[in-house]
Design goal:
Length: about 100
């Protein structure tokens, strides 16, 4: 009876130790999970910052390209005006009068 009792007590003690080890593993798992979640959250924040920067840069780049194209159109119209003036001057030299006939 005493031996059986001591064996049962030893088994129960092993059970308690095993339970505490399992609890410790679960606690580590929860800590690991929270760390992974924190890393993922940082990843999401970093991703959103990169997207925001790209969106901002993209809008800036688009507006710069639009401004350059607008300047190109202005330059084209100025070149066309200069060529038109040259044509008028050339025709006035050949006809002796400035203006359209």
């Amino acid at each position: 009876g005493v031996q059986l009792y001591s064996q049962i007590a030893a088994v129960l003690e092993l059970g308690v130790q095993l339970y505490s080890q399992i609890a410790a593993v679960f606690e580590l798992g929860v800590e690991l999970y929270s760390q992974i979640a924190a890393v993922l959250e940082l990843g999401v924040q970093l991703y959103s910052q990169i997207v925001a920067v790209l969106e901002f840069k993209g809008v800036q780049l688009y507006s710069q390209i639009a401004a350059v194209l607008e300047l190109g159109v202005q330059l084209y119209s100025q070149i066309a005006a200069v060529l038109e003036l040259r044509a008028i001057i050339y025709s006035s030299r050949s006809t002796g009068s400035i203006g359209y006939d």
